[in-house]
Design a protein that fits this description.
The protein has 193 residues and is an alpha/beta fold. 36% of the residues lie in helices and 25% in strands. The protein has a single domain, classed as Maf protein (Alpha-Beta Complex). Strands 1, 2, 3, 4, 5, 6 and 7 form a seven-stranded mixed sheet that branches. The chain is elongated. 38% of the residues are buried.
Length: 193
């Protein structure tokens, strides 16, 4: 029986690690040493696809026999990408801006295996609707949730009732790794050999 292919997640995100773990296939985590493109004026689909590929390519070049998964996620509102906040002041501004509105969450997926020339790129979009809320809710939310390591300064799975009115599309995409698309790519194209 052939050995299962080595799978590597090219991401430092604990949420992506947790989500990918749900597939039941063993994997390693190797964080790519790259500078991500984060210009808010860039088309978000282009930005997340570029960053996901950048991470996957960097790790795949160093581990040519492994299947490498890269991902990148951003929030999009008013023609602008909203990435991770620099500090709590920016997190407050972002949450204020998202309050009472609907935005799109884009994730780019990149799967690479250098030794076989495997190169798959996909993008997934979901919509999130925020409840209207004021500064008191923002302060409570920032106290309860680490907003600094998340695009859009929020987490769909933490303190959801405080700020989220609803969503459409993949819930796991909003968390940072669209598992429906990831599972389909890995089981259909990759891990079956």
């Amino acid at each position: 029986m052939p050995r299962p292919l080595r799978l590597i997640l090219a991401s430092a995100s604990p949420r992506r690690r947790e989500l990918l773990g749900g597939l039941g296939h063993p994997f390693d985590v190797i964080v790519a040493d790259v500078v991500e493109h984060e210009d808010p004026a860039t088309d978000p689909r282009v930005m997340v696809a570029h960053n996901a590929a950048l991470k996957a390519d960097w790790v795949a070049e160093r581990h040519p026999d492994a299947v490498v998964l890269g991902a990148d996620t951003t929030v999009f509102l008013d023609g602008e990408a909203i990435n991770k906040p620099r500090d709590l002041a920016q997190a407050r501004l972002i949450l204020r801006r998202l309050s009472g509105r609907e935005h799109t969450v884009f994730t780019g997926l990149a799967v690479r295996r250098v030794s076989t020339g495997l190169k798959i790129d996909e993008g997934v979009a979901s919509q999130v609707r925020f409840k209207p809320f004021g500064d008191e809710v923002i302060e409570d939310y920032i106290r309860l949730v680490n907003t600094l390591d998340k695009a859009g300064a929020y987490s769909i799975q933490e303190q959801t009732d405080m700020i989220i009115a609803g969503f459409q599309g993949s819930f796991s995409n909003i968390m940072g790794l669209p598992m429906e698309a990831t599972k389909q790519i890995l089981t259909r194209d990759v891990l079956q050999g």
